[in-house]
Amino acid sequence: MAARHGRTERSIQELYRDDPERADALAFGRRGALKGTALAAMGAALGGAIPFAHSMPEGTLPALFARPAAAQGTAGSGAPQVLRMEGKAPLILQGERPLVAETPEHLLDEPVTSYANHFIRNNGGVPEALSGDPRTWKIRIDGEVNTPLELTLGELEARFPVVTRQLQMECGGNGRAFFAPQTRGNQWGNGAISNAEWTGVRLRDVLQAAGLKPSAVFTGHYGADPHLSGAADRPAIARGMRLAKAMDEDTLIAFRMNGQPIPHIHGAPVRLITPGWPGSLSQKWLTRIWIRDRVHDGAGMGGTSYRIPVRPIVPGSNSNGADFAEMESMPVRSILSSHAHGTRLPAGTRSLDLRGAAWAGDLTVRAVDVSVDFGATWTTMQVAAPANRHAWQRWTGRVTLPSDGYYEIWYRATDSDGRMQPHAAANWNPQGYGANPISRAAILVG
Amino acid sequence: MRAMILVAAIAALGIGVALAQDRQDQADAARAIEGAAEEETVLPDGEGRSETFAYCTVCHNTALIRRNRLSRDQWDGLMDWMSEKHGMNPLEGEFRDTIVNYLATHFGPAQAPARGRNPFLN
Fold this sequence. Notes:
Largest sheet of chain A: 5 strands, antiparallel
CATH class of the largest domain in chain B: Mainly Alpha
Structural class of chain B: mainly alpha
Structural class of chain A: alpha+beta
CATH architecture of the largest domain in chain A: Alpha-Beta Complex
CATH topology of the largest domain in chain B: Cytochrome Bc1 Complex, Chain D, domain 2
Order of helices and strands of chain B: HHHHH
Shape of chain A: elongated
Number of strands of chain A: 22
Number of domains of chain B: 2
Largest sheet of chain B: none
Order of helices and strands of chain A: HHHHEEEEHEEHEHEEEEEEEEEEEEEEE
CATH architecture of the largest domain in chain B: Orthogonal Bundle
Helix content of chain B: 55-70%
CATH superfamily of the largest domain in chain A: Oxidoreductase, molybdopterin-binding domain
Number of helices of chain B: 5
Distance between the termini of chain A: 12 Å
Strand content of chain B: under 5%
Distance between the termini of chain B: 63 Å
CATH superfamily of the largest domain in chain B: Cytochrome c-like domain
Radius of gyration of chain A: 23 Å
Oligomer: heterodimer
Number of helices of chain A: 7
Helix content of chain A: 10-25%
């Protein structure tokens, strides 16, 4: 099968890669309908007939070819490199130094993300493991406070109410690979997301104990991870947030993940969890929170870092980001976890029971819709309520298929303000934040 | 009663030791991946490869280079960004040209985004 279709597959793929406009014109013809020999060629390239070819949009590359490499799954030849680490699933290895790994969407099928399937993002090096009693780990709260505090983990746990919540954590650059032209940074698909159960104390309780001065407006976070260069006087990253988010009841100083001490790679023994905002605000190996009288200016602040255009800029153009705005609540996004991209199903399969998750930063998800006919018609999925505020929402539903052949499952979430995932990644910016287009998974029946 | 407390204390100590070992193992595993040696041949052959490999891998491995497809301007701007934001020794003159040229030549923009493979042909 592979050999028989090899030549055609390569040529169409090459055509699309080298000259998408011409490829599209050839495949779809001047009237924009995929038919005749072009349809046959496309079907051969995809490995099966295309039952909904009549609604396949011109100018849209089949998902089979369009998915970023990192979102192509982890099996077979040509697949991206995978993480080989004890206790961890074979995540997609984005880089070794800094160590960064993405969770393929189909491994995010658990309502509560396990250690094995939790993505990894580091900005600096992984620090040495703490050899002594983790309860002696200290964090400092200073700056614009009446009483600077130095608290051990033991004191944090004893002195403040301990809460447990399911909380989303998502890299600010999740979805970056969907931008065209490509932007710099980890080429994430949709898998830089987790929804683990975190236990800790509320940051606001600790800040209130320190007493905020009227001048306090922003936080600045520091951790124990070394800068990549090894420079001891340079933090790996030091981000901060508006005080309103720091005072949110779901912003935690966490010390347990899924009921266990936080695994080392995820920031043991103490980290921030700032759900719904860029994951870099969930500082790992937390050592200090500096309360600022201005917008924090640490590493990873200002310019084009974690900032997005207020007025769109020309994709691919240079910008110093001076008039960008801080990226705060993350945009609406959905994942499909029941079927990996590239799933092949037995001939005669006529319906699919789909599952996934969706979330929308500080907002909630109102709807998830799925299309198997290239967006011509959409089927409404059932979206469960979040386990608590800032937890992701699981969705389920069934779609029917008229015959064997090549299908794309398009999945799209709508947030509680009515904003949907767009058809293409919008508001291009140099470091690639906020790409949340409708995602597409290819499946083959028969 | 005292015996039970003693047993519980020993058990707790055991768990503590086990957790410390877990932390150590996790840290070791992560640091082993970070520290894995790379050869410069992981980068495509061409003028400036040795310079690029040597200068860049002081801080990060080549995955950070290899995953990017950027224009010459973008690569050039990145050199300043690394100096300003991450304390890299500023790259100037011919040496800078050598490295930027190498990156722009071998990791220039793809005409279309990098496409995936066909998962049905595995």
